[in-house]
Amino acid sequence: MNDHTTDQTINYAIEAKHVSKSYGDLRALNNVSLHVRTGSIYGLIGDNGAGKSTFLKLLAGHIFPTSGEIRLFGQFEEKALLRCRRQCGVMIEQPGIFPNMTVENTLEYYRIQKGIPGKEKVEEMLRLTNLTEKRKSRCRKLSLGQKQRLGLAIAMIGEPQLLILDEPINGLDPSGIIEFRRLLLRLNEERRITILLSSHILTELQQTATHFGFLSRGKLLEELSAETLANKCADYLEIAVSDPEAYAALLTRRYPDTSFQVLPDRTIQIHRCLEPEVYSSLAAQNGLAVRTLTMHQSSLEDYYMNLKNGGNETC
Amino acid sequence: MLNYMKSELYRARHSAEIRGTAIGLLGLILFMNLILCLMSGLPHFRYGITSFSYSMLVSMPMLYCYVAGDVAVMLYESDKRNGTLGNSIAYGISRTRIFIGKCIVCFLTALCLLLLALPAYIISAMLLLEEAGPTMVWDMLAELPAVSLIAIAALVLAILLLELFDNSFFSILAWLVILVILPKILLLAGMGMASVSEFLLDIAMWMPANFFSAGMQVNMSECITVWDTAEGMARCLLSGAAGILAFGTVGVVLLRKKEI
């Protein structure tokens, strides 16, 4: 079911192996095995309470797994994990700011903590996140979107190889979302930063992520690449004709490149299809009656809902 | 850990709360000595002397603990709520190092406040008040080594409790219970059982809240402090060292796997 293959040659920035996390009787994560390739943008999708934040907190070391193993850049021992976390930038739930300190001082605090030489790094982060004008503002006076941007600047100031962002576009206005998306794509492309981000705004993730993982009620339902998802979510056509077997033979003869399948209810599902008229004409020309012809268009949302409700792998 | 401590010191330097505490402390000291000075002109007013001013601090050594606890609260009370502790952990700084780093930074911050407040206290008293009475500058200065380890222990305990509990109010309450209320309960229980066994009373008398209140006479006619004698000074130092060791060990053990 999963797109991921256990290939020793693939470099993973994050690997979770059979990770579970319980709070008393509540199982927040249940046997989750997840893989984030180095250099990818991984979208973690799930409803509220699906376990997204719990998983990200495990990665950040805020909480500990009840069972299973977390690997960062292939390392899993406690001390090695601490070292690996120095290559991570994290923003989970809140940006981690001091309300009474200025934006500039907050960034300077984290610059010192992360041992980054030179104050110009603070300037760079202010520029990168468009906060230069707000440098002297106290953090408590920032808007939600500005706080999110400051959170990203804090996560970025350590020059991380891996960014872990929990609902990063929460509170951003539409132009802020576009700006944020561009920034993430730029960081991924130019600096080869691996990004793991969670969101329940699926359309946004669809435009950013190269890989997806679907969490529901603490379980990882599936993980796949954007390419595989695109194939699975491609438009398809369903046609019901008087003689499906004859129509299938016709399809194979006339359009050998067409991918189709005859479903148990004797309708034919055609993937990567041409215009609908092509298929209705084919039936009519060969004396077959077309009972129904439906064009299906699907999105990541449809796919997720279908997956969550226990549907099959296509949309 | 050095970078973490440097960043925390930077924060302390830019903290409005610490600045407020420093200004408040200085203001309070100057206000007290000024009021004593102004009132010394009144007939039959005996308190406009340095001894009375000094005795305010000498008679209440637990004040050092309260200020140390206050500095810890000012610096770290909102670390979890603001998510700043989470950021430090996510950056791979171990909880043990964070705890030890916070204790050191808090101590240095409290020391800076002391270095600011104490000279202001002594100089303003000397300038504004008549030098007379049993309590001398020396008593105040001798108090410093006596209470220093105890104040550090109080500070370590405050940081431990702030890290341990999610609710700061509960942390402060627990701090007061451990430092003040529990010793008093033990003292009362020990006094009640003194006819049978003095064991409980002996233990209670090793607690600063008890030996500072029971073993001292500081007033307008005399100044007898715990740290006057070698035995008393040793009790102060041992009690403080034991507190640092106990609270520090408990902190390292309990916070090592503390989830946030």
| Global shape of chain A | elongated
Low-confidence stretches of chain B: none
Question: What's the gyration radius of chain A in Å?
Answer: 24 Å
Write down the domain tally of chain B. 1
How far is the N terminus from the C terminus of chain B?
20 Å
How many strands appear in the DSSP assignment of chain A? 13
Q: Your description of this structure?
A:
Chain A has 3 domains: 1-87 and 160-224, P-loop containing nucleotide triphosphate hydrolases (Rossmann fold); 102-158; 234-297, Alpha-Beta Plaits (2-Layer Sandwich), CATH 3.30.70.100. Chain A is built from 11 helices and 13 strands. Chain A has helices spanning 52-60, 78-85, 103-113, 120-128, 144-156, 174-191, 202-208, 226-232, 244-254, 276-285, 300-308, and strands at residues 12-23, 26-37, 41-45, 67-72, 88-91, 162-166, 194-199, 211-216, 219-225, 236-241, 259-262, 268-271, 290-296. In chain A, helix 3 (103-113) crosses helix 4 (120-128). The model of chain A has no long low-confidence stretch (mean pLDDT 85). Chain B has one domain (2-255). In chain B, helix 3 (50-58) packs parallel to helix 8 and helix 8 (137-164) packs parallel to helix 12 (230-255). In chain B, a hairpin with a 4-residue loop joins strand 1 and strand 2 (223-224). The radius of gyration of chain B is 20 Å and the shape is globular. The longest helix of chain B has 34 residues, at 95-128. Chain B is built from 12 helices and 2 strands. Chain B is mainly α and 260 residues long. Chain A binds chain B through residues 60-64, 81-86, 88, 90, 92-101, 105, 108-110, 112-115, 154, 158, 164, and chain B through 3-4, 6-7, 10-11, 14-17, 78, 82-84, 86-94, 257, 259-260.
